[in-house]
Amino acid sequence: MKMPSARVALSTLVFSALTLVLGTSCKEEETKLFEEEGVWALESYALDGLTFTQIDQVRKNTFLLRFSPGDGVVAAANCFASGSSTSVNEATCTINKNSAEWECRCYAYEFTDSTMVWQEFAPGETPPPVGNPTNNDSGGSDEAGDEGGDGGGAHQITIEETDSSGTYRYVTLPDGLFDSDGMTSKHVFRIKADSVWTGADIDEDDVNDLDECSMSCFPSMAGG
What we know:
Keywords: Signal. With about 220 residues, the chain is α+β, with helices and mostly antiparallel strands.
């Protein structure tokens, strides 16, 4: 009667060891530099890749990223006054609140180690598979309108740590996004409370400014 008990104990030990090994292997697969989920605001930028400029108070929390890992999508939004500049140096939507508008761009993305690859798609469309980056070491430039997948047209971004907690440097954002040249520009983002996005109401009309952007970019929020 003791032998079966011994076999059961041995089997349990082997199963536990196997579970531990598998669990460890799964954890090792998590190789992202940081957990990106949530809202990030532009803190500083070097459009020439050299000289950094701090975002000023007028444009604070008006150049935003929102990551939804579950959707595999990042939404980018920037606020500007209707008919005026959308530039990180000149946008004035917080001064001209009655004419404030938001530009929204959607990207499917992948994130491994310190590298992201973004694939743009039109708001309201289904996020495409992330294609091959065209701005990696082999050269080339982003191809607007490419549908992703094996066709390429995606954009590779290197993420760098900074001296400040919860703050990361993106080298470089896709061409045209927040005035990036797509090649050498650098943008630094800091994690923010979700309410910076979900509670945005620059024009003070009691309607969340970025609800439409969220529903257009994130399948999990579509129609909601």
